[in-house]
Design brief:
- Helix 3 links the parallel strand 4 and strand 5.
- The two termini are 27 Å apart.
- With 175 residues, this protein is α+β, with helices and mostly antiparallel strands.
- The protein has a seven-stranded mixed β-sheet, sandwiched between helices.
- It has one domain: Gcn5-related N-acetyltransferase (GNAT) (Aminopeptidase).
- The structure holds coenzyme A (COA).
- Coenzyme A binds next to strand 4, helix 3 and helix 4.
Length: 175
């Protein structure tokens, strides 16, 4: 397995494969990516329900950075992230930072430590700055990984993604 953080100029090389990966996993996300407007969407109750939803979501990702995993030259996973992101939940005083927006491992590569390897690379690259992310409260796999890496919950938005499904913001606590 090869793990890399891509330079902005070379990101284009993964766009087709990354898009296909998101399209195949659409319904694994809560809410599905096809019903979102962006990776930093604030209000999940106002979903777009657009057939072009994944395309719109992906257009936002193109402005972000990517860390990627390849197996035998093929893309098997990626994490996209923003540099120096602030919002209602992440105050400007937290800059400099990165904000992890999207993480996906292709189904046949799961359970083999790919996320561990991707995150390990990212965390060593950005060991001196704040790292934030968010997920939905029923995403047990991702939450388990975040806790293992020392992320702490900083905010919970109750029922944000449906009845009993909260949005949970995390901040990595550096050792
Ligand atoms: C979440 C996801 C990225 C995990 O990827 P992965 O490469 O399989 O994760 P890893 O193999 O590195 O596993 C890391 C840890 O999580 C645990 N884990 C992985 N999948 C799990 C699951 N479904 N349930 C419980 N634990 C799980 C592993 O056991 C491992 O723990 P360990 O180190 O104690 O053994 C992957 O399932 C995925 O792409 N899901 C769909 C998209 C998604 O949910 N993305 C995150 C959105 S914010």
């Amino acid at each position: 397995m090869e793990i890399r953080i891509l330079e902005k100029e070379e990101q284009q090389s993964i766009y087709d494969d990354a898009y296909k990966m998101l399209e195949a996993a659409d319904n694994e996300f809560v809410p599905p990516l096809s019903s979102r407007s962006s990776s930093t969407q604030r209000n999940f109750s106002e979903n777009l329900k657009s057939r072009d939803g994944i395309r719109q979501y992906f257009e936002q990702l193109k402005n972000q950075r990517f860390a990627v995993a390849y197996e035998d030259g093929a893309l098997i996973a990626f994490v996209s992230y923003k540099e120096n992101y602030s919002s209602a939940e992440i105050h400007k005083k937290e800059l400099p930072n990165i904000y992890i927006s999207t993480l996906i491992v292709s189904p046949s590569a799961r359970g083999k430590g790919v996320t561990k390897a991707l995150y390990g690379r990212l965390f060593s690259e950005y060991e001196n700055i704040n790292i934030f992310t968010r997920t939905w409260s029923t995403n047990i796999a991702h939450i388990k990984i975040l806790e293992k890496y020392g992320f702490k919950v900083i905010q919970v938005i109750k029922d944000d993604r449906g009845n009993g499904i909260d949005t949970v913001y995390f901040k990595k606590v550096h050792k």
